[in-house]
Amino acid sequence: MPKFKIETWGCQMNEYDSQKMVGLLKQNGFTQTESEEEAEVFILNTCSVREKAVHKIHSRVGVLKKRYGEGKIVGICGCVASQEGRALMEKIPYLKFVLGTRSTHLIAKAVNRAMNGLKFLDSNDHKIEMDAPVTFAERTGKTKAYISIIEGCDNFCTYCVVPFTRGREHSRPLSIILNEVRDAVENQGIHEIELLGQNVNSYDYEGKGFADVLEVVSNQPDVQRVRFLTSHPKDFNERLVRVIAAHDNICPTIHLPMQSGSDRILKKMGRQYTRSDYLDKIKMIRDILPECWISSDFIVGFPGEEESDFLDTMDVIQSVKYDNLFSFKYSPRPRTAALKLRDTLVSDSIASSRLSVLQHTQEQIQLNKHLAMINHVYPVLIESFSKKNPKRLTGRTEGNHVVHFEAGRAAQLIGSIVDVRIETVTMASLKARLL
Ligand code: SF4
Could you give the residue range(s) of every CATH 3.40.50.12160 domain in the chain? Predict the structure, then answer.
C-alpha cells in the first residue's frame, strides 16, 4: 500500500482539512506514516496568513527536493495553493499536485494521477462538495471533533488574505452539521465538538443563525463540551451570550479578535467596529457570563500606527485583562487593500519592540490569572499522555488552559472529564492533582 505523510501549518481549519484528506486517502487504500523515509507521497497543507509561513513552505519543498530529488511525490494544498494556483505549479515544477482549500475532496484523485506520472491542479470553488457530510475525517486518538459550519469570509479586513484563499462565505446546512456531530459522538466516541468558521457569527442558512446552531448542537445527547472559533466582534450579540449561559456544556470561552485598540487603526483595518463598540461587548459578555474566559488577537505595526495608537492598544490589554492573547507584527499580504494605504510603514525594529512590550505585559496578566486558580477545582477533559512525561496526563479546562497531572487511575479515562485541583502554575500551563 502506498504511504503518505501529511504536514499541516496554520489554523484549526487546516487541521480539519488534513483530517479529511487523511480519511479519504485511507478509504482509497493509502497508509499514513510519520516517517519521512517511508513516505512515497508528501502532502503539505499550507497557511498564507503571514509571509513567514509562506517562506517556510517554500523552504520545506526545497529541502524535500534536495533530499529526495524525483524519488518522492510532493504536493501542496491549502491557502498557499489557493492563493498561487497555477503560478505555484509553474514556479515549482517539482510539485506534482496543487489543491486549493475548496478542492481537498480531490486528494485521492490528485495522488493517484501523480503516481501515474501526471500532474494535477485544482483550485476551483466546489460549493456543492463542501456541503457533503464529512463522516470520513480521520479522528483516531482525538478527543475533540472539528466541524466546519461556515467557510470563507466576506469581511475583507484590509490586512487579511483569507477572503482570497478561503473564498466567500458559505454556510453549510444545519442537517449536515448535525449528521457530523452524531457521527463523531456515536461512531467515534468523541464528546467535545469544536464548531469552526473564519467568522462563525456570520452563519446564515435557511433563516438559522449561529446562536441556533450552537443551541441545537449543545442539545444533542452525549455532547459533553461545545466550543467555537472564531467570532467577529461586529456580529457578536447578546442572544449568543445568553445561549452560552443557558447551556452547561457550551464552554464559556470566547475568542474575540480586537486587532488594535485605536479607532484610527481599526478604521484603516476595515474592522467595522470602534474601540468603544468592542469594549461594550466585553462588558455585556462579563455581565451575563461572569465566569468566562476571553482571548483575542492583536496586530502591531500596521501601516500608520503611531506610538499613541499602540498605547491605545496597551490600554485595552491592561483594562480587559485577557485570559490569552495571540499577537503578531503586521505582515503585508498579496491582493490585500492595506498594500495600497499611503501611510508611513512602521519599521521592523519599532514593530518588534512594540510586540515585545505587548507580549511581556500579557505574560504578567496571564501569570496572575493562573496564580488565582491555585487551590481551585476545575473539570478537565483528558486529551492524552503528556509528550514530555508519559506518566502524566494532559487535559484542558473549559477555559482552554492546558493542565498536566499524574496519571494514576485516570490513565484509562482519556476522553473523559475529571475534576482536578490546581497546585502550581506557569504562564503557559497548570499542574494539578486528580481528585
Ligand atoms: S474577518 Fe477579517 S481577519 Fe477574519 S478572516 Fe475575515 S477578513 Fe480575515
Answer: 3-126
* Distance from residue 23's CA to the centre of ligand 1 (Å): 29
Choosing from 199, 200, 230 the residue with most ligand 1 atoms within 8 A of its CB, the one to mutate for a pocket test is: 199
Ligand 1: nearest atom to the Cα of 199: 1
Residues whose beta carbon lies within 6 Å of some atom of ligand 1: 153, 155-157, 160, 162-163, 198-199, 232
List the residue whose alpha carbon is closest to atom 1 of ligand 1: 155
Q: Which CATH architecture has domain 377-434?
A: Beta Barrel (2.40)
- As annotated, the residues of the chain forming the CATH 3.30.750.210 domain(s) are 139-251
Fold of the CATH domain 258-275+288-372: Transcription Regulator spoIIAA (3.30.750)
**CATH 3.30.750.210, applies to 139-251:** yes
Mutate to test the pocket of ligand 1, among 13, 49, 153, 272 (most ligand atoms within 8 A of CB): 153
**Alpha carbon of 393 to those of 340, 397, 398: distances in Å?**
50, 13, 16
Phi first, then psi: give them for residue 433, nearest 5 degrees. Answer: -120, 135
Q: Where exactly does CATH 3.30.750.200 map onto the chain?
A: 258-275+288-372
| Dist. CA 54 → ligand 1 center (Å) | 18
pLDDT digits (tens, 9 = 90+) for 54-111: 899 999 999 999 999 999 999 999 999 998 888 999 999 999 999 999 999 999 999 9
How close is the Cα of 198 to the center of ligand 1, in Å? 7
pLDDT tens by residue, 354-399: 999 999 999 999 999 999 999 999 999 999 988 888 889 999 999 9
Q: Could you tell me which CATH number the domain at 3-126 has?
A: 3.40.50.12160
85 alpha carbon – ligand 1 mean position (Å): 21
182 CA distance to ligand 1 centroid (A)?
30
